Structure prediction request, 79 residues.
Amino acid sequence: MLNISCTYCRAPINLSDGDLAQAVHEAGDKRPKTTHVTCPSCRRTNKVPFDRVRQAYRMAGSPPPPEEEAPTVEGEAAA
Prediction:
């Protein structure tokens, strides 16, 4: 988990372990300097140093990225 504050309205922004995992896996082999985080209060985009995101990801135990789609069961009848 990474806790930051919005640079515009100073509202707290909490990035969960899943959000960190998603940001790190989206970057892949690239070496970005920043990642963009949207403030839930004022909806403005904040730049967060990627090194800080990567460090928080490692401290969280490197959780797997969240699943994009729930697995579907084959043979399930559509209603």
Notes: The beta strands are 2-5, 12-15, 34-38, 45-49. The longest helix spans residues 17-27. The chain has a mean pLDDT of 85.
